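Data's thin. Show one?
=====
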Amino acid sequence: MAKRKIERFAENATFPHLFQPTYDELQTGFSQRGKWHEFFGNNNPIILELGCGKGEYTVTLAAHHPENNYIGIDVKGARIWRGAKTSFENNYPNVAFLRMRIDMILNAFAPGEISGIWITFPDPQPTKARKRLTSPMFLKRYKALLQEGSIIHLKTDNTAFFEFTLETIASEGNHLLMHTFDLYNSNLQEDVMLTQTHYEKIFLSQGVPIKYLRFKLK
């Protein structure tokens, strides 16, 4: 396993669409900040997948929506390798990956540079509410980056995290567009149904209902 990780880390360094800024780079001025449209070579909307893992949503959405650009973000290099490799092998021009901590997101993107966010099966942080990716602290950061009217999607197995997010949306005065506590027993036929992540498949095999919501910031 250690050898495989080393091989994947080495291959990550060869992908032209995988960015791995150091902490110091992010602190002192990441070269891509404010220049993502230049990288993609167009002015199409840029959508983020936070905690993308193997990049299932990033890659699938990019394949179905060539009119958008997608960036998957995760701190785990061995995981992000899968999405980076798949998109490279398929020559998707509208995909990038960014290996970094999500709490430094303001250092990677300029205000108004982003047009949407997917949060797919994040760490529920059961004892650290402030670190949850839908906490008021993170929503404030997203607001600084998102264009007006942008949609944030959340998909999770964790009921407590889902309820926390619903409460936060309400208490912060944001606009809940829809939600379901059991996605696969709903009538939705949308992008959220296009793929299933590695962990989602595990949860479904255990009979765990998948929750989904989307909202806009005020």
Summary: The domain at 2-22+32-216 is CATH 3.40.50.150 (Rossmann fold). The first strand starts at residue 18 and ends at 19. The chain has one domain: 2-22+32-216. The longest helix spans residues 77-89.
